[in-house]
Amino acid sequence: MVRISIPTLPPAPLVPPSALTLLAPKQAAAYLARFLDEGKGKTLVITGAGVSVESGIRAYRGKEGTYSNPNYKPILYHELVEDSPRGQMFRKRYWARSFLGYPPVRDSLPNPTHIYIAALQALGLAPNLITQNVDNLHPKARNLVSSSMHTPSSPSSATSTIPPPYPSRILELHGTLAKVHCLKHHHNQPRDDFQAQLAELNPVWDEEAKESERTGRRPRTNPDGDVDLQGVDFTSFVVPPCRICDPSGKDTTAFVKPNVVFFGETIRPEVREESLELVQSASRLLILGTSLATYSAFRLLKLASELEKPMLMISTGPSRADPLPGLEKMDREAGPVLRAYLDELVRTNTGPEVDAVRRVMDMGVVKVPPEVEGPRAEG
């Protein structure tokens, strides 16, 4: 039997801060400006859970790279899909916990870093993005910036030096919690529809969810929407099968799972191929808020290194990619560097895209997870 464990980082010796890490904020922003300028509109951004912490969503790993909640045991893919009474209990446990954990993720709002990354896309400086996050916050941020672009702006005689933006792309490498699908015939449906089914079939749990909403006292939520509950009996929780497969709800073999990649599950081949193609077509990579502990993301930087593409990482704590040739790293939070860069950019440029970015720069919402144990985290 293959043993599956939660990805973590190998021990690494402490090293002194790099010259890039020690740069003052304005100099760090200037370095980023040169990096993006040399990318000529073909820089690829890769993000991890660290960029979503300020939206109230905890990351898996702490600043030192270790698993931030060692007592948490997520459901593995083979457990979720096991066709047996044991598998049924795993599904009850997962969906009961996720039923409580999904609303905070669903209701979360883009924080400033999400807005700044969407701005890079809108300006055509880094049009393509690969995210490991399943929280739907990058699409929300892009929609905010896109809506701002349709707001009329005052005419200006100044000439913009920003090139016309390229079509942008967001690839959710590990899927999204906003959708669910059945494993029998691969029917897709919005997560909110399935959430409503769970509420209807589990009124006691629904009342608990509403009470959590009213009081704001929610159990610890992980980035995948699962919550940490101790000593709870999940036996009575009802998990419906896919209603598209069988509206009567009697087909117990039509298992439903969220559109996310579970531990022990492989990424769909088409997603893997697209991620590799985005790296191959990029001129360089900008990596933000991630430790790259999962191989699905690390292999993208490994490929970029083999192709001798420049890479700049702005993230706190150690990462799996630190030893890769061609990787430069600022061990610091990405948001302030991006903000300093964009402040200078909108000050010295004009045009509809620049005006749109100027209007949304302060729309990010910060909501740090309550009772964060230990240092700020990266994913």
Automatic annotation (TrEMBL):
SUPFAM superfamilies: DHS-like NAD/FAD-binding domain. One of its GO terms (molecular function) is histone deacetylase activity, NAD-dependent. Keywords: Mitochondrion, NAD, Transferase, Transit peptide. Residues 146-161 have a biased composition (Low complexity). InterPro entries: DHS-like_NAD/FAD-binding_dom (IPR029035), NAD-dep_sirtuin_deacylases (IPR050134), Sirtuin (IPR003000), Sirtuin_cat_small_dom_sf (IPR026591), Ssirtuin_cat_dom (IPR026590). Its main location: mitochondrion. It is found in: Mitochondrion. One of its GO terms (cellular component) is mitochondrion. The keyword Cytoplasm does not apply. This is DHS-like NAD/FAD-binding domain-containing protein. It comes from Naematelia encephala.
